[in-house]
Amino acid sequence: MKTKPILFFFIFLSAVLLSGCWGRMEVQKLDIVSAIGIDAGGDEEENIYHVTVQIINERQVAGTANNSGLSGEMPVVAYSAEGSTILDALRKIEKKSPHELFLAHVQVMLIGEELARTEGLQGLFDSLDRTPYFRGAFPVLLIKNNTAEEALHVTTPLEKLPASRIVDGLETLKIQQGEYDMSRADQVINQIQWGGGILVSLQVVGRSEEGSKMSNIEDISPEKKLEIGGLGIFKEGKLQDWMDEELSRGVSWINNDLKQTLIRLDCEGKKGGIAIEIDRSRTKVNTKMQNNKPLIELSIRSEGIFDEVQCPIDLTKSKIFDHVEKQLEEEIEREVNVTIAYAKEQKNDIFRFGESINQKDPKAWRGIKENWQDEVFPQTEVKVNVKTYIRRSGLRTNSYLE
Prior knowledge:
This protein is 34% helix and 32% strand. By secondary structure, the protein is α/β, with parallel strands linked by helices.
């Protein structure tokens, strides 16, 4: 019976201590950051980083039931500042913005080319990764031949928030064409620790003075826009080179990231006369040591359908399917081998084959780890085996062309 008063006392005490909203933040007193851009600052000591944030104008974006937003107002506002660290620059931005910056809803981070080439990425994520309100699930992109600040001043049509337009557009492109797989902040950190990696890039196209104006999204054809700039490869945290579209797709083949893509093949003397839509693909990587040397085997299995035929071939015959499948296998193998040769030339294991070797044979990996990038990887044999299956010809069998 004596335990009941004690029990009630602890229940009462818990209700007092555990209730309430300690550490709460009112939404009305926060500036929600949708995108952050980082460029090289004007001083190598005190102002290393030039940081730009894109803040959501909640009144314009939310609107009301009868009004999609306040006319005449931009859906986002951009502020910039320089600092010795990223957090230092963010604190300076808070002196310009009405409220405290809220970083938990950052949708994308952009990095200017100059910073990526000179300072690199090593120092960008430490302070942000330690901040409790900063999540690492957002993608990180490069800005080719321009600054992140310039990119964050581009208004986008069809989507009020430029950050949402960037991320949604790249995700759609990844599914449809297969060349560009965005890397999240936590994945970039792993790439830095590995020593090599890749990042998708954007480039600013058009008249720079028009990009930040409302008129840029009022015209049927915007004066300024953001477009895909290819893949940038990193070594030791710094931007090393740019990859073109074919090399970018080769990376997707090798890394098992390809979901869907379109491949054109020659047909009856017509260049690119056949288009094959790949709608399923899987790549397996097998590594082993042979004669004390690493051997990497890639096995690619892909399925597709005829998407377009611009030459007179008879698709009712199985031998035509067999012939085109052979062509397709040769084309995929060529793309993959070209990409591997490029990576070897750059002495950069962007595919992280070394990790596979480490998982398979840790003892052997310890013996080659120190010289892997510059000496061992460029000399490593990579065997590519491709098998494709064309399942159907679509709604039409033979082409109407003769």
